Amino acid sequence: MTKNTVLAANYPFATIEPNVGVVNLPDSRLEVLAGIFGSERILPAPVSFVDIAGIVRGASEGEGLGNKFLANIREADAIAQVIRGFEDSDVVHVDGKVDAASDMETINTELVLADLQTLEKAEARYEKELKGRKIEPIVVETAKKAREFLDQGKPLSASSIDLEPIRELGLLTAKPFIYVFNVDEAVL
Question: What residues are paired with 81 via a beta bridge?
Fold first, then answer.
């Protein structure tokens, strides 16, 4: 997609630093607009794709790339969770076996746990700021609702909570996401 050359190895955490690829989105409407407004240059919107090493059980507690991995995700506007769905003895799986459902559960659990940690820290700070009248009560109420929802093990993207008052926290499970299954083409 981006024509970048990156390391592709058969062991977990082959890449420590995220790989970034930028794609310009084609949009035929830009030519029409350029004609209307007499633009000399047409600049399509760039989209950056950041390939981050896989998450492992315990990442929210620092396992694997842990906090570094989670910090990289916080910078993203959306998440595409790539889930392995193929068998290949030459490509090592971090858990020793391919189990897409387990991988999905691990990723979601770690993101929920990371958000719970973020909210626990924020709530203590919010309570102090509320007493000093530095924030509105809605911020504390929203953080509490979000924590209660996450306590059920569900991502915030599945809730109807208006998270705008706590948007600054960059909660991982509030980001839009999609699952991408990496499967053997022979079974398609």
Answer: 179
C-alpha atoms less than 13 angstroms from C-alpha of 9 in its C-beta half-sphere: 10
**Sign of the Cα pseudo-torsion (23, 28, 33, 34, in order):** positive
Domains in the chain: ranges and CATH: 52-187 (1.10.150.300)
What is the reported pTM? 0.75
Ranges assigned E (strand) in 75-131: 79-84
**Residue 64, token pair as written in the block:** 């694997």
> Do β-strands 46-51 and 19-24 pair in parallel, antiparallel, or remain unpaired?
antiparallel
Q: How far apart are CA 146 and CA 112, in angstroms?
A: 11
Give dist(CA 163, CA 2) in Å, integer: 33
Q: Give pLDDT tens digits for 39-75.
A: 999 999 999 888 876 665 665 565 555 567 778 888 8
